[in-house]
Design goal:
Layout: H1 3-22, H2 32-41, H3 46-80
Helix pairs in contact: 2-3
Length: 88
């Protein structure tokens, strides 16, 4: 298995694990089982469901989006200035 293939397999897995873990952190801590129950089956109390679905999930998705857009912007900038390190 080459390094590039290993990276493209592990990076999305790490992103998914960290994103799901970040859903549990906040002023009101949530357990992993509560997060999974809310996301998969909708089995949660009203307050937990509202906090998770209307605050934490959008925050995590926006963070992923902003990170991706920043990375794309960096690649474009490195290509425009013809940085030889970006040509790899």
């Amino acid at each position: 298995m080459t390094r590039r293939l290993l990276f493209f397999v592990c990076a999305p897995l790490v992103l998914a694990v960290v994103s799901i873990a970040s859903l549990g952190y906040g002023l009101d801590q949530m357990s992993l089982s509560g997060i999974v129950a809310t996301l998969v089956a909708g089995d949660a109390e009203g307050f937990e469901e509202a906090v998770l679905l209307y605050q934490r999930v959008p925050r995590a998705l926006i963070a992923i989006y902003v990170g991706a857009v920043t990375a794309i912007g960096g690649v474009v900038l490195q290509g425009l200035v013809r940085n030889p390190l970006a040509a790899r």
